[in-house]
Amino acid sequence: MNMELIYTYSDYKVLLRDIMEARCSNGHKLTYGEIGRRVGFTSKGFMTQIIYGKSKIPAKKIRAFGEAMGFKRKEREYFEILVRYNQAKTNKQKNVLFRYLTKRFKTKIRHAGPDKYAFYSTWYYSAVLSLLSYYPFSGDYKKLAAELVPAITPGQARKAIGLLEKLSLIRKFDDGYYEVTDGPATAGGAVDDFAVVNYQKSIMDLAKDSLDRFEESDRNFSTLTLSLSEAGYQAVQERLNAARREIMEIAMHDRRMDRVIQVTTHAFPLTKKHREGILLHGVPAKKGIDLNELIGNVQGTHLLRFFDQ
Fold first, then answer.
1. DSSP letter at 89?
2. Contact (CB, 8 A) for 97 and 109
3. CA angle, corner 134, sides to 128 and 139, nearest 5?
4. How far, in Å, CA of 62 to CA of 79, rounded?
């Protein structure tokens, strides 16, 4: 394997697998077990757990890991920062480490998809993409910029068109007009990419501003505060995912579009999760018990289980 390719990886586990496979094909007999022994792991299977994402590399072992792999100084530095980036606990930490990786090593990360990061770097790229599904645009960036709420600058509109063309999400016809080449943009299901998280944060800021920007008839806001079991929470998430898919279906089959809207759903904890068997007004909430029946049986007790606004 060409070791210069190390600097194109965004996931150290994929990097390690690719290196080991390349070495194996070249007759190299260094095994996962041997690397684990050099690092100081006592369990023979711990290396495999790390490679397949079931365990993390302990912080104090990261440097030793790079040395055991035989990385040179610069390669080892990249590997160490890459591991810390992958194992960072907060989005803020990921941002800092990712910027350091791309600036320090002057690299374009292949597996992360640099154009994807650019697309999710600001809210208006997806807005312009959706707008072009019905808006006739042939190069007037000032008018295009004014279509968005809040309005962007003509320079930002030009930059958006350039990126969307680069991503092959739009194309320009011989008559000068642009057309969307793909369906509505979506980040997919589970989000673990910090670039998408940044994008979602910017959308949340727009949502807050829209409370003052639009009349109540032009927006739809609602909040629910609930107490749920693990099964109940999973059911809520499944229902939200189903609703999201249905909304996408509506968008795909809709005609005569005249606006772009943003639909955002959230569901997140407000308290710590308690173990099963916690007492509810002195009565144990055992596994399998109907909590609604339990609540009804607690005489003289009124429990607020949800707040709807």
1. S
2. no
3. 60
4. 8
Closest to 41 measured CA to CA, from 66, 23, 58, 29: 58
Cβ atoms within 10 Å, residue 33? 15
Domain ranges within the chain, ordered by starting residue? 3-108, 216-308
> Could you identify the residue written with the tokens 């606004």?
309
Torsion angles phi and psi, residue 122, rounded to 5: -155, 160
Each residue's pLDDT tens digit, 19-73: 887 777 666 667 778 888 888 887 777 888 888 788 899 999 999 988 988 889 9
Q: Which of 39-48, 114-123, 186-195 has the lowest mean pLDDT?
A: 186-195
User: Residues 240-296: pLDDT tens digits?
Assistant: 988 988 898 898 888 899 999 999 999 999 998 877 655 555 555 544 445 455 444
Where on the phi/psi map is residue 185: left (φ > 0), alpha (ψ -120 to 50), or beta?
beta
Q: Are 62 and 83 in contact (CB under 8 A)?
A: yes
Token pair listed for 95:
């941002």
CA distance 67 to 81: 14
Token pair in block for residue 43: 């369990």
Q: Is residue 150 reached through a cis peptide bond, with omega within 30 degrees of 0 on the bond before it?
A: yes
pTM of the model: 0.58
Integer CA distances (angstroms), 157 to 126, 180, 207, 260, in order: 12, 15, 21, 16
- Strands 224-226, 306-308: parallel, antiparallel or unpaired by DSSP? antiparallel
CA 56 to each of CA 12, 154, 207: distance values in angstroms, whole numbers, following the listed order: 11, 46, 36
C-alpha 242/C-alpha 237 separation (Å) is 9
- Sign of the dihedral through C-alpha 82, 87, 92, 93: negative
Count the neighbouring beta carbons within 10 Å of the beta carbon of residue 15: 23
Q: Report the pLDDT value the prediction gives residue 49, as an integer from 0 to 100.
A: 85
Q: What is the pLDDT of residue 297?
A: 47
